[in-house]
């Protein structure tokens, strides 16, 4: 059995490692575990009653009205994820490519693209809420002024447009982040490889698909995984723009809002139920952890070591 | 000299140690940040009359107040005295046993309070009162007197008159109503602020007696009428118009009417001090249909059952239930105090108080917020669907009845 001696080095490592471990244990591991535990109890408001096993999980997944609320929120999260994959990460890749190729004004645009990321979500959400205002919003006013008044909509009030309006606001807000990560990835591509490609072909398309895209795979792994986690934890923007109820009639409801409403209640809801809320939180956590692991492993596998 | 110093020091120390035993410091929690100055005033009056008790007023964000309060109470760090919500919101806190039960023995003034006000602050299961109710709110139509006068309009006596005057305003290029329904809870306000007289007292009584449900024609016809009026006379794109924007349309005098609660009056005044306001109960179909407003109680003052200064808390509650406080509350906060015998200096409040004499309870809040799904959540979403043309009033009646049957026993057959 190896002896554990507190030499100077060992002591140092212990002193440096213990506080952050304790911090993580206290503020991250403990709350997650206690949410796990809460999910197995019956609650009256914030008062814990009896142990009821998997009853809460069964309720949120299979008992009406929770079942349809859960499904609806989950479906919206899935839409958000795929839409942002195209609008945020897809556009981010194109923007990064344009910046990397040093198109005219690249210096200015590098800052401009990243600027919205720096803004607080609250500011962006209120800004877009004003943009979408049915009477005075810049969107409707612009449409009317160029003779497309028939396209003017109550954007945030229709089930057909509300979620998409939020998605566009979110994409505008965060598109700078994947752009930056992709750009960093592109800048790491060695010049020799690019020179070699230039000898073979002039086609940008071939260059993107055969060289750039495979070589920025590590960047793609990061932004895809973060987008997945972000899309399923989405809360601030819909909370500010649509309210806790996912107005209108649940068409912007997402798991984050639904969890908050269930656990803490809102003014219009009848009850606050920590048990159901915790069960939801646990389900969301397991789902995100499992899928994010799969995504990371699969995407890692296609990364190429240079 | 030195001995003197030591003696003085010892005496001072003794006073410092003993001081907490002489004064009782109460903490008092509220969600009314905007009323802070007024409450400081009330508290000063109370402290002057009750030496030895001090009250510290603390406010928290309204939307999350219940969460913050229940968390604190559960953790044993709750306040001594607190504002609590009414109905289902009260039960959330009271059912967990955090609140001190009140009676006419401990707070004698409660004996004279109106029964519906006390019911709003009692548990349905045992009928025990847990809080001193503080204000009632009324859902009605607020209108801009100057605009009405300029177009020679009068308060409508029938639904047809309401439509006609809205048409007159619309023809004159003025928005008849300011309301929008993008903010979920505004749908409930609009529905019952406009529809209470159309539904009628008989419908309410039958519903409570378990003799009818929401598929009743009196209810669904009212929803249809509300929808028709909204489509015609609410602002363009009102389904995408949120609550603050709607308030601004009215307070900036771009629109002539606002369906809302009596709590809007003070706010409109402070936004636009020059605005001349009037109120009326939305009419029924015929002139002799009783004109009803939707009435509910806002919340109450409760004491912490586990508080360290319970006696002082009860003394403070007795002050909060007194005529003196009720009158000061009505005068400074422009709210309808629930304390009996309070008179209203403000003519508008006096008028609201008058309208309250013929009312039905604000239905979903008073009776259908005790389980999931709550009637409020259902009606809000369903009305948004109706306004967007995605459902019918009859279908709403079905959804409400079957949805509420999940926990509301009279609908379970």
Structure explained in plain terms:
- The complex is a heterodimer of chains A (306) and B (413).
- Chain A is 70% helix and 3% strand.
- Chain A is an all-alpha fold and 306 residues long.
- Chain A has two domains: 8-55, no CATH class; 63-301, MetI-like fold (Orthogonal Bundle).
- Chain A is globular, with a radius of gyration of 24 Å.
- The mean pLDDT of chain A is 88.
- With 413 residues, chain B is of the alpha/beta class.
- Chain B folds into two domains: 10-135 and 298-345, D-Maltodextrin-Binding Protein, domain 2 (3-Layer(aba) Sandwich); 137-295 and 357-411, D-Maltodextrin-Binding Protein, domain 2 (3-Layer(aba) Sandwich).
- Helices cover 48% and strands 15% of the residues of chain B.
- Chain B has helices spanning 2-22, 36-49, 65-74, 87-94, 115-120, 145-150, 159-171, 184-208, 217-233, 243-251, 264-271, 310-320, 323-333, 347-355, 363-367, 375-387, 393-404; strands at residues 24-30, 53-59, 81-85, 132-144, 175-177, 255-261, 277-280, 293-303, 336-337, 359-361.
- In chain B, strands 1, 2, 3, 4, 5, 6, 7, 8, 9 and 10 form a ten-stranded mixed β-sheet that branches.
- In chain B, 49% of the residues are buried.
- At the A-B interface, loops of A face helix 3, helix 4, helix 8 and helix 16 of B.
Could you provide a short overview of the structure?
Chain A has 306 residues and is mainly alpha-helical. In chain A, 70% of the residues lie in helices and 3% in strands.
């Amino acid at each position: 059995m190896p002896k554990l001696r507190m030499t100077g080095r060992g002591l140092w490592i212990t002193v440096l490692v213990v506080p952050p471990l304790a911090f993580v244990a206290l503020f991250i591991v403990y709350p997650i575990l206690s949410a796990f535990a809460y999910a197995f109890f019956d609650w009256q408001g914030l008062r814990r009653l009896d142990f009821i096993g998997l009853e809460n999980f069964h309720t949120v997944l299979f008992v009406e009205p929770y079942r349809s609320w859960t499904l609806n929120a989950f479906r919206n999260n899935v839409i958000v994820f795929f839409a942002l994959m195209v609008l945020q990460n897809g556009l981010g890749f194109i923007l990064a490519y344009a910046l990397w190729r040093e198109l005219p004004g690249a210096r200015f645009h590098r800052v401009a693209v990243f600027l919205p990321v720096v803004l607080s979500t609250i500011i962006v959400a209120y800004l877009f809420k004003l943009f979408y205002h049915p009477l005075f919003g810049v969107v409707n006013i612009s449409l009317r002024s160029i003779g497309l008044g028939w396209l003017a909509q109550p954007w945030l009030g229709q089930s057909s447009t509300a979620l998409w309006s939020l998605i566009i606001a979110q994409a505008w807000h965060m598109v700078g982040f994947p752009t930056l990560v992709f750009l960093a990835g592109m800048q790491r591509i060695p010049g020799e490889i690019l020179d070699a490609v230039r000898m073979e072909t002039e086609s940008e398309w071939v260059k993107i698909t055969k060289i750039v895209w495979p070589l920025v795979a590590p960047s793609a792994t990061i932004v895809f995984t973060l987008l997945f986690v972000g899309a399923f934890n989405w809360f601030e923007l819909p909370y500010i723009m649509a309210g806790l109820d996912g107005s209108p009639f649940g068409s912007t409801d997402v798991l984050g809002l639904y969890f908050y409403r269930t656990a803490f209640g809102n003014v219009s809801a009848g009850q606050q139920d920590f048990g159901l809320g915790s069960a939801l939180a646990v389900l969301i956590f397991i789902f995100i952890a499992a899928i994010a692991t799969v995504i990371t492993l699969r995407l890692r596998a296609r990364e190429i070591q240079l | 000299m030195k001995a003197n110093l030591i003696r003085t020091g010892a005496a001072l120390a003794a006073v410092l140690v003993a001081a907490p035993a002489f004064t009782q410091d109460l903490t008092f929690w509220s969600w009314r940040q905007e009323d802070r100055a007024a409450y400081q005033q009330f508290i000063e009056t109370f402290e002057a009359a009750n030496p030895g008790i001090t009250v510290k007023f603390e406010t928290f964000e309204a939307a999350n107040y219940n969460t913050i309060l229940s968390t604190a109470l559960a953790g044993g760090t709750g306040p001594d005295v607190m504002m609590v919500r009414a109905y289902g919101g009260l039960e959330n806190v009271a059912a967990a046993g955090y609140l001190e039960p009140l009676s006419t023995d401990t707070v004698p003034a409660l004996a004279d309070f109106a029964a519906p006000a006390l019911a709003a602050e009692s548990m349905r299961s045992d009928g025990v009162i847990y809080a001193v109710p503080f204000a009632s709110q009324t859902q009605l139509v607020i209108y801009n007197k100057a605009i009405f006068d300029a177009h020679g309009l009068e308060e409508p006596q029938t639904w047809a008159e309401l439509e006609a005057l809205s048409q007159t305003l619309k023809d004159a290029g003025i928005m008849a109503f300011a309301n929008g329904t993008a903010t979920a809870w505004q749908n409930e306000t609009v529905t019952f602020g406009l529809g209470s007289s159309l539904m009628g007292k008989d419908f309410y009584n039958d519903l409570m007696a378990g003799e009818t449900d929401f598929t009743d024609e009196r209810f669904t016809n009212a929803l249809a009428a509300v929808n028709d009026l909204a489509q015609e006379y609410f602002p363009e794109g009102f389904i995408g118009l949120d609550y603050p924007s709607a308030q601004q349309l009215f307070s900036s005098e771009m629109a002539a009417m606002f369906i809302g609660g009596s709590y809007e009056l003070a706010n409109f005044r402070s936004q636009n001090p020059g605005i001349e306001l009037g109120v009326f109960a939305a009419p029924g179909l015929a002139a002799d249909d009783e004109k009803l407003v939707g009435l509910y109680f806002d919340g109450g003052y409760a004491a912490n059952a586990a508080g360290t200064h319970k006696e002082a808390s009860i003394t403070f509650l007795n002050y909060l239930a007194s005529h003196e406080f009720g009158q000061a509350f009505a005068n400074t906060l422009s709210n309808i105090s629930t304390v009996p015998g309070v008179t209203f200096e403000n003519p508008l409040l006096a008028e609201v108080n008058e309208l309250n004499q013929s009312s039905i309870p604000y239905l979903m809040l008073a009776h259908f917020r005790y389980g999931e799904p709550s009637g409020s959540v259902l009606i809000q979403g369903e009305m948004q669907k109706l306004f967007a043309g995605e459902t019918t009033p009859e279908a709403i009646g079905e959804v409400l009845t079957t949805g509420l049957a999940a926990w509301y026993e009279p609908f379970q057959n």
